[in-house]
Write a structure and sequence with these properties.
It is a single chain. By secondary structure, this protein is of the alpha/beta class. It has 3 domains: 8-44 and 61-85 and 230-299 and 453-492, FAD/NAD(P)-binding domain; 109-219, no CATH class; 306-431, no CATH class. It is built from 16 helices and 19 strands. The chain has helices at 16-27, 66-74, 108-119, 123-144, 158-165, 176-183, 187-194, 214-220, 231-243, 285-292, 300-303, 336-344, 389-408, 424-431, 448-451, 476-492; strands at residues 8-12, 31-35, 47-50, 53-56, 85-87, 90-95, 101-105, 224-226, 247-249, 254-259, 264-269, 272-275, 278-281, 310-319, 328-331, 355-358, 372-381, 416-422, 463-465. Strands 7-6-15-16-17-14-18 form a 7-stranded mixed sheet. Helix 1 runs parallel beside helix 9 (231-243), helix 4 (123-144) crosses helix 5 (158-165) and helix 4 (123-144) crosses helix 8. The longest helix has 22 residues, at 123-144.
C-alpha cells in the first residue's frame, strides 16, 4: 500500500515568521519550500560586518525566548545544540534631561526598589502597576496573540468570555499616556512607561491603555542576550529548518501568486512556475496584494491603515576613549509629545528625538576591534512617504551626536571611525516593508487589533499570511506566534 503523498506548502519570504511557519508545517508532515528575494534569511533580523565591526541590523531586544525554544522542542532537537542566551540583570539605562540616570533592573522587585528611590514613588504602587499589566496580558493573550482573531471559534472559549466580563479593567477607552499619568505623578516615570508604545511602532498619546501589558513581557519574562548577537536567533532557526528538511530558494523574488478558481495553487519566481497546496506570504501584506495578486480584489480599508513608525539607524564604529555604559541606553527628548506628533503626522523629524543606543561588543568582544565598540544608534521616525531623507539624516546626525556627546562628556564626532546608515527607504527596499514601517499598520486605535489583516485570505482559499504586517503584529515574539497561528489554521484545513 503506497504512502499518502505529503501536502506541499510554499512560503514567500524567509523572515522570522516565515522560518517559524516553515518549521511548524514541516513537523506536521508537509513538504515546505521557502522563496526569499535576498541572499540571506531573517528579514529585518540580520546583521552585517565591516572594517572589523559586526552589527545586528534590526531588532535589538530579545524577550520570551520560550517561543524560540518551542521550535526546537517540536522538532525533537536540543536547543543548546543550536542556540544559547543569558538573562540580563539590567534591561536599560535611562537618561533624562534633568541629568537623572535610571538603571532599569530586569527583576520586577529590584526594578520597584530602584524606581522608588529615583522617582519618589511607593514600591507597592509600581508592583500593582505590573500586576495589572500581567492581568491584562493573561486575560487577552489567548484572544489577541495566540489565536486567529478572525475566526468565530476563537470567541467561544472560556478565556475570551472571561476577558469580555473584565472589559473595564483593560483600559481600552483611554490612551496609554493617560493611563500612565493616572498611575504616576513623576513625568519621568510616565515617559518611561509611555515608551513601551514604541515596541509596536505606536504613539502613547494615541494607542489604548491596554498596551500597558507590554512592560509585563519585559519584567515578567525578562530580557535576554543571545550569545553571538540577535542574528544568532535567525542563524539557529534557519539551521533547524534545514536540518528537518525545509528547502530554501534564495535570490528568488516571487513575482506572482498563482490562483485557480479563487484558490492559491502556487507561485511564479525566477521565470518558473512552482505549484503547491498552500501558499503563505511572509511578505508585507500591502505589496503582496499590490504586486503578487494583481487582478484580485484587495481589502482596501485594511491596506490603507496608517503605518507604524519606522527608524533611522546609525551604525557607528567607535574608538573607545572613555567609559561608556551598559548595553541599552535611552536618552529622552525634551518634548516627548511633540516628537510623536512629528512621527505620525509625517512631518519633519523632531530636532531633539529620543535616542536608543545598543552596544553588543560589551557582551561579544569580537563584535568590534580591540579598544573599540559597535554602536547601534536609533531614533523613531515616520514611515516613508517621500520625505527628503538625505536632509533629515544630516540634521538628525548633528543633533544626536551633540546629544550623546553632552550626556557622556565626550566629543563623539572625533571618535566615530566607521558609519553606515539605514533609513526608511532602505528598510522598505531591503525588507519589502510598505513605507519602511517596522510593524505594519500602527496600533494608534483601540480597534487596531481587529483591523489588522487576518492570517488567511477571506477571498482566496489556501492563501495565508504571517509576519509583522498581519495579526498579531510586529516584533520577534508576535512574528513567531503568527507563524504558529498560520500552521494551526492550515493543519486544521487539511
Amino acid at each position: 500500500m503506497s504512502k499518502k503523498k505529503p501536502k506541499k506548502a510554499i512560503v514567500i519570504g524567509a523572515g522570522i515568521a516565515g522560518l517559524a511557519v516553515a518549521i511548524h508545517l514541516q513537523n506536521s508532515g508537509f513538504k515546505v519550500e521557502v522563496f526569499e528575494s535576498n541572499d540571506y534569511p531573517g528579514g529585518k533580523l540580520t546583521d552585517f560586518s565591516k572594517k572589523g565591526y559586526r552589527f545586528d541590523m534590526g531588532p535589538s531586544l530579545f524577550t520570551m525566548p520560550q517561543l524560540v525554544e518551542e521550535l526546537f522542542s517540536i522538532s525533537k532537537k536540543n536547543t543548546e545544540d543550536y542556540f544559547s542566551y543569558k538573562k540580563k540583570e539590567t534591561s536599560c539605562h535611562y537618561f533624562f534631561k534633568d541629568g537623572t540616570i535610571f538603571e532599569a533592573k530586569s527583576d520586577v522587585k529590584k526594578f520597584a526598589v530602584t524606581a522608588s528611590k529615583t522617582f519618589n514613588v511607593e514600591e507597592e504602587k509600581l508592583l500593582r502597576y505590573f500586576d495589572r499589566s500581567k492581568k491584562k496580558y493573561d486575560l487577552t493573550s489567548s484572544l489577541f496573540l495566540e489565536k486567529s482573531l478572525h475566526k468565530l471559534s476563537t470567541y467561544f472559549t472560556k478565556n475570551t468570555i472571561k476577558a469580555i466580563f473584565n472589559i473595564n479593567s483593560l483600559d481600552i477607552n483611554s490612551t496609554l499616556h493617560d493611563y500612565n499619568t493616572k498611575n504616576f505623578e513623576d513625568s519621568r516615570l510616565v515617559q518611561l512607561f509611555d515608551r513601551f508604545a514604541t515596541y509596536n511602532g505606536s504613539s502613547p498619546y494615541q494607542t489604548p491603555g491596554i498596551m500597558s501589558m507590554i512592560p509585563h513581557l519585559e519584567q515578567y519574562y525578562g530580557t535576554f542576550f543571545p550569545n553571538g548577537g540577535m542574528h544568532s536567533i535567525t542563524q539557529s532557526i534557519y539551521q533547524l529548518a534545514l536540518d528537518i528538511g525545509v528547502k530554501f530558494h534564495f535570490n528568488s523574488r516571487v513575482d506572482k501568486i498563482h490562483t485557480k478558481n479563487n484558490k492559491a495553487v502556487g507561485i511564479f519566481s525566477n521565470g518558473k512556475d512552482f505549484f503547491s497546496d498552500f501558499v503563505i506570504s511572509n511578505s508585507d501584506v500591502v505589496p503582496t496584494y499590490r504586486l503578487l495578486l494583481k487582478g484580485h480584489k484587495s481589502p482596501e480599508k485594511i491596506l490603507r491603515q496608517p503605518r507604524s513608525s519606522s527608524a533611522l539607524i546609525f551604525y557607528w564604529g567607535i574608538r573607545k576613549e572613555f567609559q561608556s555604559l551598559d548595553l541599552h541606553n535611552i536618552f529622552f527628548s525634551e518634548d516627548y509629545k511633540q516628537e510623536f506628533d512629528y512621527i505620525f503626522k509625517k512631518q519633519h523629524v523632531y530636532k531633539d528625538p529620543t535616542v536608543y543606543v545598543n552596544i553588543t561588543s560589551k557582551e561579544n568582544k569580537s563584535d568590534a576591534p580591540k579598544g573599540c565598540e559597535n554602536w547601534f544608534v536609533m531614533v523613531n521616525v515616520p514611515s516613508n512617504t517621500g520625505q527628503d531623507w538625505d536632509s533629515i539624516i544630516n540634521s538628525v546626525r548633528v543633533n544626536i551626536i551633540k546629544k550623546l556627546s553632552d550626556a557622556l562628556s565626550v566629543n563623539l564626532k572625533d571618535i566615530i571611525e566607521f558609519e553606515y546608515v539605514l533609513d526608511p527607504r532602505l528598510i522598505e527596499t531591503k525588507t519589502n516593508s510598505y513605507q519602511g514601517a517596522l510593524y505594519g499598520a500602527s496600533s494608534n486605535n483601540k480597534y487596531a487589533a481587529f483591523l489588522r489583516h487576518p492570517n488567511f485570505s477571506q477571498q482566496i482559499s489556501n492563501l495565508y499570511f504571517c509576519g509583522g504586517s498581519v495579526h498579531p503584529g510586529g516584533g520577534i515574539p508576535l512574528c513567531l506566534l503568527s507563524g504558529k497561528i498560520v500552521s494551526e489554521l492550515i493543519v486544521k484545513n487539511t
